[in-house]
Amino acid sequence: MKRYITVLAALFLAAAGASAQKDFGGVARFDSTVYDFGRIDTRSGAVSHTFTVTNIGAEPLNIFTVTTTCSCTSSSWTRKSIAPGESGTIEATFTNAEGPYAFDKTLNVYLSGLERPVVLHLKGTAYTGKNKKCRSK
What we know:
Strand 1 and strand 2 (28-30) form a beta hairpin. The chain has one helix at 2-20, and strands at 23-24, 28-30, 34-41, 47-55, 63-68, 73-77, 87-94, 101-111, 118-127. It contains one helix and nine strands. By secondary structure, the chain is mainly beta. The relative contact order is 0.23.
């Protein structure tokens, strides 16, 4: 019985931790912190995803900067102050010009009111598809 309660408590804490990861310091809430593109063909060009951040604090929220871990990833973000209850965006683009390989690109988002950056991830698997040859009849 004691083991059952311990396992149940561990599952509860893991679930609580997973849901709490989208709220940061009572200042910001992200719609997601990880976006998985799945399998993408390197010939299809760049792919993008927009993360939404909502100000859950009492003061205006500013996105100071967004840094990426690789030159194959770029970003643009809301430059104006985000009022309490309002939302802003961070658009992240992966060039998809290399591969094939699995990737997990990191974006560090520096926000007002937080001492540490919020870490966002773009992930997936880039592959090179086979060229399809046209057949004439």
